[in-house]
Task: structure prediction
Amino acid sequence: FHLQIKRNDYVHAMVTFFNVEFSKCHKKVWFSTGPDAAYTHWKQTTFYMHEYLTCKKGEEIYGVFKMVPNPRNRRDLDFEISVDFQGELCQVQEQNKYKMR
Result:
């Protein structure tokens, strides 16, 4: 992934959400768990980083987001998120592992 910073601020975490469409039903259904969408019982997921980033407007965060089913339970998910940030005020390279049960 590649994110461009929109304002001077701190980054403590990455947040994910999803959009889904069920198009093979009697009536097509679509919804989003995004922050600007209508409320659902589904939530966004927050992935906190070990180090926070001190960012300036226009700087960029690069990374890789990997998600795989857990080998012991296919309904569980294992995530790896690597982050590379080379800003003026701080530089961070880290790789984090998360488990969603």
Q: What stands out?
A: The longest strand covers residues 45-55.
